[in-house]
Amino acid sequence: MPDLTPELLVFGFLWYIAFLFSTTCHEAAHALAAKLGGDETAALGGQVTLNPLPHIRREPFGMVLVPLLSFVFSGSMMGWASAPFDPSWQRRHPHRAAWMALAGPGANFTLMLLAGIWLRLGVTQHWFHRAVATGGPGLLATILGIFFSLNLLLGTFNLLPVPPLDGSSVVMLFLPESKALRYLDWLRENNFAMLGLVAAFLFFGRIYEYIYGFALHVLYYGLR
Questions:
Q1: pTM for this structure?
Q2: Does 9 have pLDDT greater than 90?
Q3: Alpha-carbon distance 188 to 121, whole Å?
Q4: Rounded distance, CA 117 to CA 76, Å?
């Protein structure tokens, strides 16, 4: 268990708020894309909203308990959320379902880009100031940095093409509908969820540092 200093607790609080908002945006984007595509399941559950409460009520462990406990015991934060959909709608419209799956990571990349733009402007326009107590980045720069890092992580991780992650459904966008249906049946007939998560964590840990390093290089390119 890490030493829970006041500074670490404040940092954890900021991370949790960013996690809560970013995950809510992710699931609301899924719900909205499904509604636009003809599936009202998540919309009827009140999930086409940026209010986190309906999403927390659906996944209280993944959105509250596990993130907070993982931070207390490991100093890092992990969690999950979900949006319901109609499997029969997914089968009738595999390409629409693929767009629904893509909408979640798309929301995360949008938040990442917005945070990145503000970070770049803040650096070039000298908006940021060092924290007096620690000499580190100030509050605004810290918050933007958290949103940039967290949403890059959420977006890229969820795009891995393994079940149950969104990327496994996004694959259907690149297949004709007949082959997309066969692919969907194959996913349903074989329970790869646990194996997919294990493979995702093992593989993602190997590549993410390069993805993050590249993102930082692009963000600060040309700045001295």
A1: 0.92
A2: no
A3: 46
A4: 26
